[in-house]
Amino acid sequence: MIFDTHAHYNEKAFDTDRDELLTQMEPAGIAGIVNMGATIQDVYDSQELAARYPFVYAAVGVHPDEVGSLDEEKLQLLYELCGREKTVAVGEIGLDYYWDKESHEMQKKWFVRQLQMAKDTGLPVNIHSRDAAQDTFDIMKAEHAGTTGGIIHCFSSSAQMALEYIKLGYYIGVGGVVTFKNARVMKEVVAAVPLENLVTETDCPYLAPAPHRGKRNSSLYIPLVIEAIAQIKGIEPREAEEVLYENALRVYRLK
Ligand code: NI
Q1: How far is the CA of 92 from the centre of ligand 1 (A)?
Q2: In this predicted structure, what is the pLDDT of residue 182?
Q3: Which residues have CB atoms below 5 A from the ion given as ligand 1?
Q4: 191 CA to middle of ligand 1, Å?
Q5: N or C: which end of the chain has fewer CB within 10 A?
Q6: How many Å lie between the centroid of ligand 1 and the Cα of residue 6?
Q7: How far, in Å, is the centroid of ligand 1 from the Cα of 255?
Q8: Alpha-carbon distance 191 to 82, whole Å?
Q9: 8 CA to centre of ligand 1 in angstroms
């Protein structure tokens, strides 16, 4: 069975056929999906999807590009939503110095506050980090390591840093990028990190694996990601699938 640890099925790209697509998941072996928060509205949409589909779970969190909309009152709301039955993570939270939509100070402040929320509510985290590898790592190490664990989503740093995260108790999220011909570093990361510390994800509708690169992504394409991981590890896809599924259940505490 297959687990998508990071998806955005509430996005516009799925408006025309969301239900039709999601009813295809279980027959295709997709046994679990965690829908992320990015804006506050996404957080509510994720709860709604989770209520509608037994295999969909929700994450609660505000993306670094969106933290300008946060205040104490909204944070309190997020805390309450963390207590809902199908909330399994705080995410996606982190730092994004690529789009740089909010000041670094503002991003760091709300990143730390949301890491604290994860600790307070006992939920693992799902981390977004873009062009901010060292700051993300330093904050994770100082503020969260050794607590509730979680996933470094769409990991894009070095194999060496991936191993540092593993030491702190985190998992590495692997998606469509690992299938790209030019993804040398991602392939190195998958080779270096033990299979037991990897999880599958899509970030759909973004980052579809080859040969669908550039098209709308969905969890139905995860077998292509598993195949790429299995090939790097020199094992059968079936074996990789089983381990990766167990890893996702473990990190989200669904066992
Ligand atoms: Ni995402």
Answers
A1: 7
A2: 93
A3: 203
A4: 23
A5: C
A6: 6
A7: 24
A8: 34
A9: 7
Q: Is the pLDDT of residue 255 over 90?
A: no
Query: HEC states along 107-118?
Result: HHHHHHHHHHHH
Dump the DSSP string for 126-187: EEEEES-HHHHHHHHHHHTTTSS-EEETT--S-HHHHHHHHHTTEEEEE-GGGGSTT-HHHH
Residue whose tokens read 């540092």: 164
Q: Which residue has the tokens 């769409």?
A: 154
Question: Does the structure show a pLDDT above 90 at 164?
Answer: yes
Distance 127 CA to ligand 1 centre (A): 9
Q: Is the pLDDT of residue 2 over 90?
A: yes
Calculate how far, in angstroms, residue 160's C-alpha sits from the geometric centre of ligand 1.
23
Question: What is the average per-residue pLDDT within 216-232?
Answer: 98
> In angstroms, what is the span from residue 137 Cα to ligand 1's centroid?
18
The mean pLDDT value of the chain amounts to: 97
Using one digit for the tens of pLDDT, what is the confidence trace for 166-192?
A: 999 999 999 999 999 999 999 999 999
| Residues sharing a CB contact under 8 Å with residue 139, sequence separation 6 or more, in sequence order | 95, 108, 111, 112, 115
For 28, other C-beta atoms within 10 Å of its C-beta total 13
Distance in angstroms (rounded) separating the CA atoms of residues 154 and 136: 13
Q: What is the pTM of this model?
A: 0.97
Residue type, 154: C
